[in-house]
Amino acid sequence: MNQPNQRGGGGGFRQAQQAPSLAIRTKKTQLTTDTYTKMVMGEVWKKDWVYALIPFALGLLPAIFVHSWWWIVLAVVLTILFVLFRSAQVTGVTQMEQSKPLFERMAFEMDNKQLLLRVGPEKEGKAMQLTWDMIGRVRRDVDAYVLYLKPGTPPAGMAAWRLWLARTFDVPVFLHLPFKIFNADNDRRLFEAMLRRKNLLPAEAGAATI
After folding, report:
1. Residue 100 DSSP code
2. Rounded mean pLDDT, 111-124
3. Is 146 strand, coil or helix?
4. C-alpha span between 67 and 44 (Å, rounded)
5. Which of 2, 3, 139, 148 has the greatest count of CB atoms below 10 A from its CB?
């Protein structure tokens, strides 16, 4: 599982001292760990439910040679263990030190070059910086934008099976920007147009009524 500070090509969050004067600025918001867990858990199991069939099938495999109800019990136990392990990966992200900035109360400032996450008083001039190439994709929900950070680059020479596991069972890490944090509808339109120009939102998203 990739750590949040390994995302965006391995660069992690970078410190920035100031934002451009023409940047789009938002109100403060906070993504709670409960909200994150619910969102990611639903996304992970929508994609990974089929993998839960693998331990179930392995548990039943001996029944081909020796018929017994115990193989069914074994299959169920292996499946439960897999579900618990995968779910623990999701909840574990909220407990990591590197992930704490994602769950702090913050405001966003964005322009064509970068996205700043301001977690303290604005007068201090401190922010965490993400360049746009660190964002892998964006999803527009009915009331928010969800910006997914790119997974980190795996170490050179990693075995093929480990690489497959890392990619298959990665845990999404994202920024959650509710529509309500934008100071004006025009700011939100400008931000969405920016996402479309960077090919982070499909072109047809711009045709939707705002």
Report:
1. G
2. 81
3. strand
4. 34
5. 2
